[in-house]
Write a structure and sequence with these properties.
1 helix; 96% helix; rod-shaped; mainly alpha; single chain
Length: 77
């Protein structure tokens, strides 16, 4: 095999290796993107839960104040 043929084979092998690396990298990127989307969805869900808890806390606080004022008014009579 002459030098030109060996060089061509080496280039082809290098190209195949490079394409495998690129494909592996693209696969990794797709997996990371999927994980990021999952985390963003989970984060959104957590924000909704926290907002719901804050609303319930505010409602309970109002209920507590109403009951406290009622008890105070009974004591002052």
């Amino acid at each position: 095999m002459n030098k030109a043929n060996r060089s061509l084979k080496n280039l082809e092998s290098g190209k195949e290796y490079f394409l495998e690396l690129v494909n592996d990298l693209n696969s990794s990127i797709r997996r990371w993107e999927a994980q990021i989307l999952d985390l963003e969805a989970h984060n959104h869900s957590l924000h909704q839960s926290i907002n719901s808890i804050h609303v319930k806390m505010a409602e309970r606080s109002e209920e507590y104040e109403i009951l406290k004022n009622y008890v105070d008014s009974l004591h002052s009579q």
